[in-house]
Structures are given as C-alpha cells and as structure tokens.
Amino acid sequence: MNRMGGTAREPAGLSLKRVHKSYGAHEVLKDISLDIQGGEFVVFVGPSGCGKSTLLRLIAGLEDITAGDVYISDTDVTERDPSDRGIAMVFQTYALYPHMTVAENMGFGLRAARRPRTEIEQKVRQAAEVLRLTDYLDRRPGQLSGGQRQRVAIGRAIVRDPDVFLFDEPLSNLDAELRVGMRIEIARLHQELRNTMIYVTHDQTEAMTLADRIVVLRDGRIEQIGTPSQLYDDPDNVFVAGFIGSPKMNFFKAVVQGADRLRLGETELPCPRTDAAIAGPVILGLRPEDLRVAGPEEPGFPMEVKFSEFLGGTTYVYGEIPGGTGCTVELERSRQARPGTILTLTADIADMRLFDVEGMRIR
Amino acid sequence: MTGTLTAPTPRGGRIRYHRVLFHVTATLVALLFLAPIAWVVLASFRQATDSLKPPLPPWPTDGFTADSYVRLQEFGQSILHYTGNSAFVAIGTAVLTIIVSVLAGYGFSRYRFPLKGLVFVLILSTIMIPFQSILTPLFLLLAKMGLQNKLIGLVLIYTTLQLPFSVFMMRNAFDAVPKEIEEAARIDGMKGIAMLTKVMIPLVKPGIVTVGLFAFLNAWNEFLAALVLLTDQDKFTLPVLMTAVRYGRFGSVDWGAVQAGVMVMMIPCLILFLILQRSYIRGLTAGAVK
Ligand SMILES: Nc1ncnc2c1ncn2[C@@H]1O[C@H](COP(=O)(O)OP(=O)(O)OP(=O)(O)O)[C@@H](O)[C@H]1O
Ligand SMILES: [Mg+2]
C-alpha cells in the first residue's frame, strides 16, 4: 500500500522486444531486448551518445520506433500516444510550464484528461506533501531554485500516477550537494511508491546506489545487464569492467603459461582458475582497490609512481608498469608514495579478472 | 578593529557621474523625440488664421481654441466614422496577421515538410520587394475579386505585406521554446490545437504582441495603398482623410484641421503601446529550463 492515491495495484512491468531505431541511415539502437519486472528500479548507463536518451524516449513514445515492440504490463503500447502509455517522464531541463503555477504544472495532465477538480486538487496536495512543496504551490517555476524546480517536475510525474517513471539525467543540472540530497529523495520515493522506474545517468554513484539492475549500453547495444554488484564483481567484458567502478579498472597485457602461471612482463603471478583451458595472450583486469603493496616474500610486479592524489581516507597513486602501461592503485592513507619510487604490487588471485584479446571475459 | 566601528559608506548617497551623464543624455534624447509631438498638440489648438502663420513660437498666439477639432468633425461623415474605418482595418489586419503568422511560425518551427527551407526563404525574400511596385497588380487582383473600395480588401493587402516579417518573428519565437516543454505536454496528453493554445501560445505571447502591434500600427498609419484603393469618401481611413481635410472650404490649406486629425490618429496608438509594453518587453520563458 503506498501513500499516493491509494491505488494498491500491482506495479507494471515493461519489456522491449528487438527494438531498433535509425535516424536516416544512422542506426542508433540495435536490437535491444530487455525485460523489466514490475517495481524494479533500472538504470541505463553508457558513454555519451550511446543511445540512452533515445531508448528512454522510445519507451515514452516521444520517438517513433523503427522496428520492434514495447510492452507495458503485457500490453503492446508501440503505437500508442505518450499520454496513453501509463508513463511519466522527468527531463534533465525540468521542462516546467513557465506560465503556470506549481500547482497548475502538477495538475496539468489530469486537467487535460478532464478529471474532476477535487481529485486533481487532492492528488496535487498529496504529491506536494511528499516532495515538501506545499509552501510553493502558488509560485511560478521562475521563482523557484533548481532543486525545487526538479521536485516540481517529479511531482508532475507523481500526480500522473504512472505505471512507469522515466528519468533522463534528472539531477545533472544540480550542484553536487543538492544532487546527493535529491538522489536520496528519489530512492525514498521509489521505496514509497514501489513503481517501476527507469533512470538514465552518467553518474556512477547514482547508478550504483539507486539501481536494482543496471543496463550498460554502448553504441546502441546492451553490453551487460545485472545488479550493481554483479557488474562490479563479474563483468562480461573489458568495456563493462572499465565502465563500472571509479577509478577505472587497470588492464594489463599478460600471457598464460602452462596450467596456472600468468606472466606479466618479467613477473610471474598465479593464474586464476577458469572453466575452459586457456593459453597464450590474455588481458588481466585488476581494480585499483584490489591492488596492494606486496609483502617481502610475495611475487609482485613493479610500478613507477608518477603522482598521487590524497583524498582523506585513501590515496590514489598513479604510475606506470614496465612497458609503459598506466596503473592506478588505492593505498591506505598512511602510505607515502613519492614520484619516482618503485612499488611492488600484487593482488589476491580471487580479485583477478581475465579477458581474451577481443575483450570478452574468460570465466 | 576600526573597520567594525566606522559606519559603512552609504552607497546611495554618493553622486555617480556616469549616472548623471546617463540621465542628462536620456532627457535630451527624449526631448528631441517629444518636441514634434508637443508641436502638433499645440498647433492643433490654434485659431484657423493663426495656423497659417509661421510655426514660431509653437504655442497659439491668439489664444487656445478647439475650432480645428470642430472643423475636422464637420468634414464629411463624423470623425468617429473614419476612426471606425481605421480601427476596423487596423484591428482586422492585426488579428488576421496574428492568426496566420502563429500557425505558419509554428509549422515552420516544429514540422518537417518538403522544401521547407526554400519556402521560408521565398516568404522572407518578399520583404525585399518595395510594395509600391506591386500596388498596381494588387489593385487589379482586388478589382477582379470585387474587393476594391472595400475595407476588407485593404485588410487583405496589409496582412499580406505584414506576413513575411511576422512569420519570421513567430518562427523565432517558437524556436526559442524548449522542445522538452512540448514533449512534457505531449506526455500530459496535449496534441494538435490544444497543444498550440494551452501550452505554446502562452509561451510565445511576447512575440504575438510584437507582431500584432506592428501590424496594427502599420495598418493604422498606411497611406498609399489606402489612397489608391479607396475612392468612396465614406470608406476613407484616417490618413486618407487627412489629405481630404487639408483642402478646406475656401481652397486654402487647413493646417489646423490636419493637426487635429494627427492628434486623433496618435492617441489610440499611444494607449495601445502603453497597455502592451509590459508583455512586449517581458520574456515569458525565463525560468522554464535550467
Ligand atoms: N534527432 C536525431 N537525429 C539524428 N540523430 C540523432 C537524433 N537524436 C539523437 N541522435 C543520435 O543518436 C545517438 C544517441 O543519442 P542519445 O541522445 O540517445 O545519446 P545519449 O546516450 O543520451 O547521450 P548523452 O549521455 O550525451 O545524453 C547519438 O549519436 C545522436 O547523435
Ligand atoms: Mg541523453
């Protein structure tokens, strides 16, 4: 049972079936299939221009689909108008109606649908309470701060009482502090409303903290779908491994020798067990937080320190291993690492990820 | 700690020389613009004989009188009738221009259709043709349609002349409305005419006011086309009336009546501008995004 509207209906799921989108000859989305459970919070991430916004806008119905189908709660909505799909969208630029008050902005969709005045007023008031906007209902968007405007935009979505909420980088116009506050607010909202939410972001932290599942997109394709910890611990390929986590995972060229030896430059390391037997060149992935300075007896590879960043709790040390490949290590704060010194680094065998030369994960 | 003990310098009390300079210049410029108008006002209150004298000093030397207005009123139909003609033409032009340019501007801004760029450039390029040169064909066209000597014909001509600029203005106004607002409205269930009237038009109101005001003023003041097209004294608009009034009863030029007529023509424009200047200046989209 949620606080809004009292409709205790099951949250609706959403599925995309073989969705394609082209602008002229330029194919932006290529064969996207995706199932989202009712009530799930799904985050789309990916580099700029990979098609995140386009995918969201296809779901919203703001763009025509080139091929494929969109289902919301098992109904094919591919040919429906945006207003009939049971969705609500929050835009990066808020997109409030500047000539209407906050209350009118939030109630506009219901007024367009000719719902009774009392119902509109009640829903607007409820949404305003949830978002702490009650004192601002008579103001115009121009008289609000950025954070308040974004709350109004979210309020407008809530009042529509949609099956699926769509957010396109809703926080990227806010300053860092406000962003954290609004992120927590959105998480709280999801807990309270239990609706399906799809959220597009550039921001690692937003993706990791908000998502039940993350969809990583690249060049209009889905690279991997999984929970934040799945993507972090068990990436399918070099792209996902490098995209999730900050600072980035380190990648080194290595060679598998014999059954269980891994040669990295001059150094021999133990090789993680894999299902398939492997030999020859591989890519070794190691996260900065999994690397540590080797003990006196341990095998390790050398890194020449270039510079370091002190971040309070930890220090990131940037350097090069022989051959010139860049390497980042997270060290505890007490550790000194002056530029020019050589650190001998190692990692636990469980933290090593192997990829083939094409970048696919070897498990 | 002397800093905390002495009072801060009151900023308003100091004389700012650049501000003085600004106000002096602005006053001079304003006087320059207002002087001819004041001249007209004063001249309209002269005696008939007085108004034939050299215009210095500008004030009536033989005492104030409203005789000029009486003579204006007595010419042909009442002055109210001619004002009505002018108002019909000006308001008709403004309304028609607004309707057509809003629709056209919205179309050019938001829809894709074949040859859109070419059509737009063609419309704009008609600004470069002096309209006096097409007056004759226009006259013939209207005559064919049976619209010569009709006020509605004049409205059509004025609207046509007003449209290139107006369509351009409205397209820019619609272009300035963020796409996301329209998309949000689509999600809220707006489409077609409702989208235009409930969401878009309030956002381009300053553009509409500008276009309407220009159309009104141009139609209100236009002389040549009205002179050519209107032959019936009943149908005269105020500018044409002015030339007719000029030749008073005794063959002499009646400057007094002309000045009085100019006054009558000026007042509605002034009132209109004062009412509309706020929305004319204010940009409504402020605060919509970011
Ligand atoms: N209207 C359009 N016409 C042609 N190409 C378009 C259009 N809209 C988007 N694209 C292209 O589609 C691709 C994906 O765009 P999209 O906006 O979905 O990227 P994105 O992942 O949201 O990027 P960002 O993170 O920068 O917002 C881009 O290469 C873009 O150039
Ligand atoms: Mg985007």
Q: What's the helix and strand layout?
A:
The complex is a heterodimer of chains A (about 375) and B (about 290).
Chain A: E1 14-23, E2 26-36, E3 41-45, H1 52-60, E4 67-72, E5 75-76, E6 87-90, H2 102-112, H3 117-130, H4 146-159, E7 164-168, H5 176-193, E8 196-200, H6 204-210, E9 213-218, E10 221-226, H7 228-233, H8 238-243, E11 250-257, E12 261-264, E13 267-270, E14 280-286, E15 291-293, E16 301-310, E17 314-320, E18 326-332, E19 342-347, E20 353-355, E21 361-362
Parallel strand pairs in A: 3-8, 3-9, 6-7, 7-8
Antiparallel strand pairs in A: 1-2, 1-4, 4-5, 9-10, 11-12, 11-14, 12-13, 14-20, 15-19, 16-17, 16-19, 17-18, 20-21
Helix pairs in contact in A: 2-3, 2-4, 3-4
Chain B: H1 2-5, H2 17-43, H3 67-74, H4 79-110, H5 116-125, H6 135-144, H7 151-175, H8 179-187, H9 192-203, H10 205-221, H11 224-229, H12 238-246, H13 255-281
The structure holds adenosine-5'-triphosphate and magnesium ion.
Magnesium ion (MG) binds next to helix 1 of chain A.
Shape of chain B: flat
Query: Spatial order of the strands in the main sheet of chain A?
Result: 6-7-8-3-9-10
Q: What's the assembly state of these chains? A: heterodimer
- Gyration radius of chain B, in Å: 25 Å
Number of self-contained structural domains of chain B: 2
Structural class of chain B: mainly alpha
Looking at the overall shape, the CATH architecture of the largest domain in chain A is 3-Layer(aba) Sandwich
- Major β-sheet profile of chain A: 6 strands, mixed
- Give me the CATH fold name of the largest domain in chain B: MetI-like fold
